Amino acid sequence: MEKQTEQWSTRLGFILSSAGAAVGLGAIWKFPYMTGMNGGGAFFFIFILFTVLIGLPLLIAEFVIGRGAQKEAVSAYQKLTLKRSIFSFIGHWGVAGAFILMSFYSVVGGWVLIYSLMSIPGMVISDNGDYAALFDTITGNPLLTIAGLAFFVFLNSFVISNGIQNGIEKYSKILMPLLFLFFIIIVIRALTFEGAMEGVRFFLQPDFSQLNGENILYALGQAFFSLAIGISVMVTYSSYLAKNVSLTKSAASVSVMNILVSLLAGLAIFPIVFSFGLEPTEGPGLLFIVLPEAFSQMPFGELFLSLFLFLFLFAILTSSFSMLEIITSSVNERVKASRKQIAWVAGVAVFIFGIPAALSSNALADFHIFGKTAFDASDFLVSNIMLPVGCLFIALFVGFKMNRALVEQEFHAGNPFGNGMFQVWYQILRWVAPITIVIVFLYSLGIFELF
Q: Are 66 and 76 spatial neighbours (Cβ–Cβ below 8 Å)?
């Protein structure tokens, strides 16, 4: 049976790879449309608050678990609990969450893949300039969406089957900085449009009268989704981390990069939305409609659009690699089969499970689960149930069950902060994070109203 023996070659490689695992669709695709649908600036404010006060401590906790056990997710909890605790199920919960997340994530990945191929100079990216019609054409075609899903999953399985540590780190060091660079270019261009400041105000000026309990629930779910916490992806990633690397500084770097990408995404999207008279509540199609509009207005726009979409595609792939990795590595610890075989079988399973989500905007548009399409139901299940529950148990596990001496050892390793910082983090993990998660989660179940 194969064992995981690789390590990240540098702290920067780990940070960029972790950021790549986190950023992906969460910050670039989902954040703008969730913000647009849930109150603009007020949602962004609550999102930052949850990211810093709840998300960051939980990200450190996942890092502590992974490096403390030096095992992939399922084995990590079993090792640290000696298999005699209810908490040993957290790893299995994470693998299940990653599987469901990967299934509908790959659908959007397929859309981006199709857009990327169509954006190659010389290809036709627009339908007579009507990008909304183009998006409807792509998502409304069953064969096209299934083909996009299949090819996206194929790319993931191919990479994972050949081992991903060196590949993720190598390409993250190149692609993540380029993604930042291109985002800055888009933001600068977006702010030059007439009426852009109206979009900036919508995004950055909180109007708390627009905020309700449902918005708060979505903001918490978005914080978890965008940091890739709650399904133990970061447990697996940190298991490859050297002992002399500061977990707190690394987690802070990942969180700051995530907030920064979310900020850039908002500044790139909303000025254009308001300038072109589009609705900020456009929904999942916001990025696919607005970005082509922006690029069509700038010199060499066709080339820039193509480059950005391919960078976006690679960022999404880097993020999805982490999901398939947690599935593959956990199975690889327990099944007498090669990593290649496991990766391809896992890919086939993800593809099959993702078909209903892929058909949600066409052949299965009228099929609903609890009033939601298969795509939306999968998204809601992971973002608003599985991630919060996973985060709750991770907080309780590190705060009350995991050996405190080991927790302190991992927290302080390579860390310039003193014991005071540890105490603050530890108490947040033990009390603030669980109570906040429970309150918001009970609201989501309709037990009571926040306000």
A: yes
Contacts for 387 with CB less than 8 Å, ≥ 6 apart:
97, 221, 224, 225, 229, 230, 231
* Tokens coding 238: 């940190």
pTM: 0.90
In order of their start, the domains of the chain are 11-444 (1.20.1730)
| CB count in 10 Å sphere of residue 409 | 14
CA-CA distance, 404 to 420, in Å (whole number)? 15
The secondary element (H helix, E strand) that includes residue 93 is helix 90-118
CA 302 to chain centre: 28
* DSSP annotation of 450: -
| Bridge partners, 121 (sequence order) | 123
Longest Cα separation, the chain:
64
C-alpha distances (whole Å) from 114 to each of 93, 118, 154 are 32, 6, 14
CA 366 to chain centroid: 28
Spell out the long-range contacts of 43-46 with Cβ–Cβ below 8 A and sequence spacing 24 or more: 43/211, 43/215, 43/218, 43/219, 44/203, 44/204, 44/206, 44/262, 44/266, 45/206, 46/211, 46/215, 46/216, 46/219
Q: Cα separation of 76 and 93, whole Å?
A: 13
pLDDT of residue 2: 42
Give me 398's structure tokens. Answer: 């590190």
Tens digits of per-residue pLDDT, 162-185? 765 666 677 777 877 888 888 888
HSE-up of 240 (CA within 13 Å, CB side)? 27
300-321: burial string, b at 16+ Cβ within 10 Å, e else: ebbebbbbbbbbbbbbbbbbbb
